[in-house]
Write a structure and sequence with these properties.
This is Protochlorophyllide reductase. This protein is α/β, with parallel strands linked by helices. The protein is built from seven helices and seven strands; from the N terminus they run βαβαβαβααβαβαβ. It has one domain: NAD(P)-binding Rossmann-like Domain (Rossmann fold), CATH 3.40.50.
């Protein structure tokens, strides 16, 4: 039986690796979204080798009209797994005295409101699945238990994202939907840097495997890429 996963921010980094990982499994159809599909060279290269199991759609998660366009293009298509991966880290090294509040607002718009916009818009599509999974890529920097001294916008946006998604898990407690947040690891991407601990492929493989094992008892949990519980 064919299953469908929709991955936002699928043109690079962890998102692109998640597309590759799901395409390794014949039963999965992948919908990869990004802001500018025409420029997503690596993502487009996967189409020819995917046996028509990869669809690329435009999506700007901060634009309600773009999210509505995505919803309309999917119509009543069932989505088994939604992976909210699109995100930004735009205030690296920020500290008091040098706050750029426009960047702070942008960070919240992309990292918090974006996943919530997409999830709300695709609620009916997810509801068609027997057990739908809403997976959101967060960060250990959003954990209140972790000491932070900088990166205010990014850290606080990921903390807000975790709270929003855990609240959603509570609201959907009596439904067929599972909501989980992931720290993807310190990953060798544009965001994580070349000195990071794991490769995008390792992170994606762990997220894929852990997502496959999620049960309703996991809804609302903050997990590491390898399936371990991450302290809040």
């Amino acid at each position: 039986m064919t299953k469908t996963v929709l991955i936002t921010g699928a043109n690079r980094g962890i998102g692109l690796e998640l597309v590759k990982r799901y395409l390794q499994e014949d039963e999965w159809h992948v919908i990869g979204t990004c802001r500018h599909p025409e420029n997503a060279v690596e993502l487009k290269q996967l189409v020819d080798s995917s046996s028509n199991r990869l669809t690329i759609l435009p999506l700007e998660v901060t634009d309600s009209a773009s999210v509505l366009q995505l919803k309309n293009s999917l119509s009543d298509k069932m989505i088994d797994v939604l992976i909210n991966n699109a995100g930004i880290f735009n205030d690296r090294g920020s500290s008091i005295g040098s706050f750029e509040f426009d960047k702070w607002a942008e960070s919240f718009d992309v990292n918090v409101l974006g996943p919530m916009r997409v999830t709300e818009a695709l609620r009916d599509n997810l509801d068609h699945a027997n057990t739908a999974k809403i997976v959101t890529i967060s960060s250990q920097l959003g954990a209140l238990s972790r000491r932070a001294v900088s990166n205010y916008a990014y850290c606080s946006s990921k903390a807000a994202l975790n709270k929003a998604m855990s609240t959603l898990a509570n609201e959907l407690e009596d439904t067929n939907m599972i909501v989980a947040m992931f720290h993807p690891g310190w990953v060798q991407t544009d965001m994580g840097g070349s000195d990071a601990e794991i490769t995008p492929a390792q992170s994606a493989d762990g997220i894929f495997s852990t997502t496959e094992k999620l049960t309703k008892a996991d809804s609302g949990k903050f997990l590491k890429w390898n399936g371990e519980i991450h302290p809040w």
